[in-house]
Design a protein that fits this description.
With about 240 residues, the protein is an alpha/beta fold. The protein has one domain (about 5-235): Aldolase class I (TIM Barrel, Alpha-Beta Barrel), CATH 3.20.20. The protein contains eleven helices and eight strands. It has helices at about 10-15, 25-35, 55-60, 75-80, 110-120, 135-145, 155-160, 165-180, 200, 215-225, 225-235, and strands at about 5, 40-45, 65-70, 90, 125-130, 150-155, 185-190, 210. It has an eight-stranded parallel β-barrel with strand order 1-2-3-4-5-6-7-8, surrounded by seven helices. Helix 2 runs parallel beside helix 3 (about 55-60) and helix 2 crosses helix 11 (about 225-235). The N and C termini lie close together (about 5 Å).
């Protein structure tokens, strides 16, 4: 059974861009816990905005769920991560813009840089993974770095414009999940997972967790964070 990871970055983004002080990612994490989340996902940027180091530390204090940090392996973030003792760390090889609304990458880490970060961050009680596109070459490269898991972006599924493209995307993802497992890698999924496709995505194979952010934040505007998480957990679990 797949687990549900709730990403709280959309709440932090609403706080920063919308200047809404009550949009608190820490309280969102607390409500997510009450709603049946299995872990809290915290994407970090080098500027430590919109999610801040204070947010992450408070989440660790107030929520007993496992925490996954996700970031580009800069010296600053590689140094910060162990201070909050996350159970999961997902490295992102492509440096994102410090503005979450600007998806254009600003540079990529070398294989050596990423591999070095993996070695520095791995420990007996922490799993380190790599966010990659769902391609067999990238799965093999990740395995060669000694990561514990890979995290696939599911954008291809939601971008499918026909039933045949959708079926192909699902079949490809299922095959890659199986291949990753044979290489000794756990698998997590993220990206455009919503209430319409969550159950289908979670049923693709042996998946540790599915990370969902925007869809939950959107539904929370109508039903509240706890219920929005509970609805998603019912689909993922």
């Amino acid at each position: 059974m797949a687990k549900l990871g709730v990403c709280v970055e959309p709440i932090a983004l609403l706080r920063d861009r919308g200047r809404i002080a009550d949009a608190d990612p820490v309280l969102a994490a607390v409500w997510a816990d009450l709603g049946g989340a299995d872990l809290i996902v915290c994407p970090l940027r080098e500027s430590l905005h919109p999610l801040t180091d204070k947010d992450v530390k408070l989440i660790r204090t107030m929520v007993k769920l496992p925490v996954e940090l996700q970031f580009y392996p800069s010296d600053t973030l590689v140094g910060f991560a162990p201070t909050v003792s996350p159970e999961w760390i997902t490295l992102v090889p492509v440096r994102p813009s410090d503005n979450p609304e600007t998806p254009r990458p600003e540079g990529s880490g070398t294989v050596e840089d990423v591999g070095k970060a993996v070695r520095e961050l791995k420990s007996s009680d922490r799993r380190v993974g790599l966010r990659i596109e769902p391609e067999i070459g990238q799965v093999k490269a990740a395995a060669s770095m000694g990561v514990d898991y890979v995290k696939f972006r599911m954008g291809r599924l939601t971008e499918a414009r026909s039933l045949s493209e959708r079926a192909e995307a699902l079949e490809s993802a299922a095959s890659l999940i199986l291949a990753a497992g044979k290489m000794g890698l756990s698998v997590a999924l993220e990206g455009d997972v919503d209430y319409h496709n969550a159950a289908e995505v979670a049923g693709l194979g042996r998946i540790h967790h599915v990370a969902v952010g925007g869809a939950i934040a959107g539904r929370a505007l109508a039903v509240g964070m706890e219920q929005a998480v509970r609805d998603m957990a019912g689909l993922i679990h």
